[in-house]
Amino acid sequence: SKRLLNLKVYPRDQEVYEAGDVVIQCRDEGSLRVNVYWEKFDSEENSKGTLGAQPRLPRSAVDHNGRLEISRILMNEGGVYVCKAFNHENSIGGKADATVRVLRLP
Fold first, then answer.
1. Residue 48 and residue 75: Cα distance in Å, rounded?
2. Are strands 36-40 and 67-70 parallel, antiparallel or unpaired?
3. Inter-residue contact 21 to 70 (CB < 8 Å)
4. So what's the pLDDT on residue 2?
5. What is the reported pLDDT for 42?
6. What's the pLDDT at 58?
């Protein structure tokens, strides 16, 4: 049987030079086709239990229904980005993550 939620992220990993642009796609390929949104995973905030209180994305990031675009990325904006199924964040398959590595310009 098909899982109700099946979040897919493309690409899972990417490297980009500082001031470059990043695009990550996320969509639910499960039977529910739930709307999705992005947050940046911040382990410090996460340990305090405040993740999710505020949508956490870099200032230059735009989330178009699961298409995350970050323009002119900064060094500190690299890391793990988590795509979540709206209202199903804690369900099986309700999260998927992508890693962005930001490289210093040579």
1. 24
2. unpaired
3. yes
4. 57
5. 75
6. 87
Mean pLDDT by 10 residues, the chain (106 residues): 83 97 96 94 59 68 96 94 93 93 94
pLDDT of residue 56: 80
3-state secondary structure 14-76: EEEECCCCEEEEEEECCCCCCCEEEEECCHHHHHHCCCCCCCCCCCCEEEECCEEEECCCCHH
In this structure, the chain runs to a length of 106
Nearest Cα to Cα of residue 15 among 58, 64, 79:
79
Residue 60 pLDDT: 87
Read off the amino acid at residue 55.
P
The token pair at 93 is 């398959």
**Six-digit token string for 60:** 């230059």
Contacts of 59 (CB under 8 A, 6+ apart): none
Is residue 79 within a helix (H) or strand (E), and if so which, with residue range?
A: strand 79-85
Element (H, E) at 85: strand 79-85
